[in-house]
Model the fold of this input.
Amino acid sequence: MPPSKAQSNADSLPARKPRKRSPKKSVNTVPPSNLRQKLLFVTIEVLSLTTIAIYVIVVVLGNAANWFSGTSFLGSLLPFAAGVMALILASTAFLLAWWKLRAYLKNHSTILIPICAISLVLAVVLLSGQDRLGQSIGQFRTLVGGKHEASRVTLNHQVFATYRRYNSTNLNKMMQRAEPYNAAIAEAAAEFDIDQNLLQGIAATESSFKPRDSNDGGHGLFQITAVPKSVLEESKEHLKIEQLSLYDHRHNAFIAAATFKHYLAEMKNDVFLGLLAYNIGPANGGLRFIMKKYGVTDFITIQPYLQLLPRDYPIRVLSYALAFRIWQKQGKLLPYQEDSNAMQIQRLGVPGLP
Done:
């Protein structure tokens, strides 16, 4: 059969050469290990610079607030504002200098960048010193905290001053008398999530660790008197008993811890008011009634209305609690006025207070 015309035309066409495919271009990808390393270096750098910035702000503004304290426009307000402006300019200059230094370090080795950043943080901290930093933080807290911080500082120093006035011989004897009761107090404190030293301070103020019945109706280690029924029930639950005995030191400590926790919650975790409410008890409506009657909101403003009540009770409790903290941390009591003891004691802090 003769070939068709289409077939003969197809045969006459030259054969097509197969088209060469160009090889796929390889995509440059960063190995995961290098990516993680770069991310780590950047994180260290950012954290270090942020730490330096926060540190400098706290130190400069804290000290500026101390140097230029007052209400005079020319003597206080204007110099403080100028100091803030100088801080902003200095921060800008530092960032520009760091950017140039960073480019220089990057040309040599990327690992030099985080090393240099960490070195700067250590240098700033070491040059300033721990005491200077503590003072700067305190001054900065006063600047930001306003009247609330000023009240806190004033009350803290009332506690320190009361501790300073104690007779060291008598105080050492009290520490020794407390030894047989410390285990029960520690258990009660842990059960009700209260600072152990704070509970020891209450016992020291109430009985001087000489459990007895007093003329005003107090019983035992914590001189338990009128206690809300809900507190007694809660104490039984924690002790897992049916009957409480005020002459059992462990029971007495649990009742005291539950009572203080009750009043502390009632006073919205204000330790000074909580201690004052614990001391006043539920009689005549308790502390809450007194505060409502005179329209007061804190320990400072309520003091003028407590002429017939022990206004210094919270201060005495906290000063004894401070003594127990010093004894626990240092193994001995430190005379407040000697050497650098004052700063060391202030760093330890008053139990129960921020």
In short: The chain has a mean pLDDT of 85.
